């Protein structure tokens, strides 16, 4: 168990634990998407990565934190399903580029639809809570909101703007 040195760190540990529980335990979507598409979640993850941007097998293996022989098996399976195809690399004749087919793009989109569906508890939040959560998650991801100065900006004004947009 993680121990905290300060009250703020103790709070951060608790919040992180709650976020993991919310996302990974209570609203786990990997099984749902795997059953819907009839393949492992890793294959779905690979398919979605390929749909986002065609890539060489070596780059896929690096991006997905796996070894090259395994990514070759995964891509072979996706190709047998008609979801991806290998095409010659434009400058490296030893390499192939893996691209999605139309069926693969549709499957990746369906996976995205399932994975992106917010849980009921999130949908039920009010506009102000959603705006605050959006601001906090953007900060955690290191992003700035449109119109926000680099120093973080006026958070209350941002929340009010998002509330007005959601009520419109």
TrEMBL record:
Which intervals hold domain HTH marR-type?
A: 12-142
Q: Name one GO biological process term.
A: response to stress
**Gene3D superfamilies, alphabetically?**
Winged helix-like DNA-binding domain superfamily/Winged helix DNA-binding domain
Q: Which GO terms describe its molecular function?
A: DNA-binding transcription factor activity
Q: Which SMART domains match?
A: HTH_MARR
Region labeled Disordered — which residues?
141-168
Alphabetical list of Pfam families matching this protein? MarR (PF01047)
Q: Give the top-rank taxon of the lineage listed in the UniProt record for this protein.
A: Bacteria
Protein name (Swiss-Prot/TrEMBL): MarR family transcriptional regulator
Q: What is the lineage of its organism?
A: Bacteria, Bacillati, Actinomycetota, Actinomycetes, Kitasatosporales
């Amino acid at each position: 168990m993680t121990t905290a040195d300060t009250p703020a760190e103790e709070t951060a540990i608790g919040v992180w634990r709650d976020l993991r529980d919310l996302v990974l335990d209570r609203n786990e979507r990997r099984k749902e998407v795997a059953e819907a598409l009839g393949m492992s979640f890793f294959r779905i993850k690979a398919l979605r990565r390929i749909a986002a941007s065609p890539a060489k097998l070596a780059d896929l293996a690096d991006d997905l934190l796996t070894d090259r022989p395994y990514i070759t098996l995964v891509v072979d399976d996706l190709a047998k399903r008609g979801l991806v195809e290998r095409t010659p690399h434009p400058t490296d004749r030893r390499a192939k580029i893996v691209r999605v087919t139309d069926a693969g793009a549709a499957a990746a989109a369906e996976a995205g639809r399932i994975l992106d569906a917010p849980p009921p508890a999130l949908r039920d939040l009010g506009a102000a809570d959603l705006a605050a959560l959006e601001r906090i998650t953007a900060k955690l991801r290191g992003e700035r909101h449109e119109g926000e100065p680099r120093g973080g900006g006026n958070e209350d004004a941002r929340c009010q703007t998002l509330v007005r947009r959601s009520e419109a």
